[in-house]
Amino acid sequence: MPKPEEIYELHAASCNEEDFWGQVKRTVNGKPISEENIALIVEQSRNLLQLQKSDHVLDLCCGNGALTHRVFDDVEDVIGIDVSPSLIATARKFFGSDKRIEYVVDDVLQGVKALAPDRAPSKAYMYGSLQYLPQGKVVELFKFLFDRFPELTRFMVGNVPDRQKKDAFYNSKSLSPDAGNDPASPIGVWYSKAELFEIASECGWDVEFHQMPDGHHAHHYRYDAVLVRGSV
Ligand SMILES: C[S@@+](CC[C@H](N)C(=O)[O-])C[C@H]1O[C@@H](n2cnc3c(N)ncnc32)[C@H](O)[C@@H]1O
């Protein structure tokens, strides 16, 4: 069995090198999601992060950069971190001409801990990826980001599978008691809003929850969250 952090590396290697959405499984019935759906993700992400030209952004588990370079086309600089060497190679090859964006191969937690002190982020983004991390790593990551980077005001955790919608999603299929808890499963770990709130607030964050945009194909079973540094 591959480890959770190896799954996308193995999958990407089986895809065409320009099948950017296929490589990160942004597909419905095996076909890349529509350009309209991508535009909805980009607009919602920019709005929820309240992006400004002066922002320094961390894109955690950035995959092949296909989303990164579109969401962050007008900020000061971006560091994208992903554990998959193939996906980062694709990011550098196809989206590396934008010199404001640096792509790094590393585990998300190790990569964040290795950031140079002068690269403190003002915004952070983790899209479609929380669910593929072991829960202990999520807690450590949320806490480290809160404690180490006081300048970090908004951290969007997008495209989270909602545990409260899991049974309806799987319809009548019988589920094992463990379903929804395995970061190595196709959809990964499902989080109710209450669970995510509890984890994030224990690490210091306030949390905003947002519906995914109307018209997005996963609107009915996923949500977006923004971890916010409250006033002290
Ligand atoms: C569904 S893809 C999302 C990629 C990108 N954020 C996007 O939305 O297009 C999930 C990504 O999480 C990455 N990933 C999984 N575990 C990781 C870890 N421990 N550290 C860094 N990246 C990880 C995978 O390599 C993969 O690129």
Description:
This protein has 232 residues and is an alpha/beta fold. It has a single domain (4-228), classed as Vaccinia Virus protein VP39 (Rossmann fold), CATH 3.40.50. Helix content is 34%, strand content 20%. The chain contains nine helices and nine strands. Strands 5-4-3-6-7-9-8 form a seven-stranded mixed beta sheet, with helices on both faces. The longest helix is centred in the first third of the chain and has 15 residues, at 35-49. The protein is globular and about 50 Å long. The mean pLDDT is 94. S-adenosylmethionine (SAM) is lined by residues 4-5, 8, 24-25, 61-63, 67, 82-84, 87, 107-108, 127-129, 132-133.
Keywords summarizing the entry:
20% strand, two-stranded antiparallel sheet, 9 strands, binds S-adenosylmethionine, 232 residues, 7-stranded mixed beta sheet, globular, single chain
Helix-strand topology string: HHEEHEHEHEHEHEHHEE
Q: Pick out the low-confidence regions.
A: none
CATH architecture: 3-Layer(aba) Sandwich
Counted up, domains total 1
Q: Which geometry do the CA atoms define?
A: globular
Main sheet characteristics: 7 strands, mixed
Classification by helices and strands: alpha/beta
Total number of helical segments? Answer: 9
Our Rg estimate from Cα atoms comes to 17 Å
Strand order of the main beta sheet, please? 5-4-3-6-7-9-8
Enter the CATH topology name. Rossmann fold
Q: Count the strands?
A: 9
